[in-house]
Write a structure and sequence with these properties.
globular, mainly alpha
Length: 147
């Protein structure tokens, strides 16, 4: 197997592990919310916008149609996780923002994952942590277009 193939396989396993960790975090850090992956992804995207995020942008980021995204966001609004309002700059557009409960939920899930990752990192050889941190930063940068 080539070095490039080995690297791709390792990154694939990291991605699979991250999905598994996120599943566990959704179930354990916010069980009462019963969030699906698309709902979680929407919370991440909406939470990244300090002044809110347009529905169309959320749709682009999570990879579903604008009508489906609108329905998903309305469900999150009914559960008190986000607010939806008309965009001040374009009255035809709708902007989503995290509610205080949405911020709390998002933070609980992110904190759960960070604690799990910290624990994972503690188990890695101390003399290799610097190299691993540099490699992880390179991989993280490569994933930037997907976040």
């Amino acid at each position: 197997m080539s070095q490039l193939a080995e690297l791709a396989d390792s990154i694939e396993m990291i991605v699979v592990g991250a999905v598994g960790l996120t599943s566990r975090a959704l179930a354990e850090a916010a069980p009462e919310m019963d969030l699906t992956f698309p709902q979680w992804r929407a919370l991440v995207v909406v939470g990244a916008g300090s002044d809110g995020v347009r529905v169309g942008r959320v749709a682009e980021q999570i990879g579903i149609t604008s009508p489906a995204t609108g329905r998903l966001l309305r469900r999150l609004q009914q559960r008190g996780l986000i607010t939806l309002s008309t965009d001040d700059d374009d009255r035809r557009a709708t902007v989503a923002r995290l509610s205080p409960l949405g911020e709390q939920t998002r933070a609980a899930i992110v904190d759960y994952r960070k604690r799990a990752l910290h624990s994972l990192a503690e188990g890695m050889p101390t003399d290799e942590r610097g190299e691993l941190a540099q490699a992880a930063a390179v991989i993280s940068d490569a994933f930037a277009p997907f976040t």
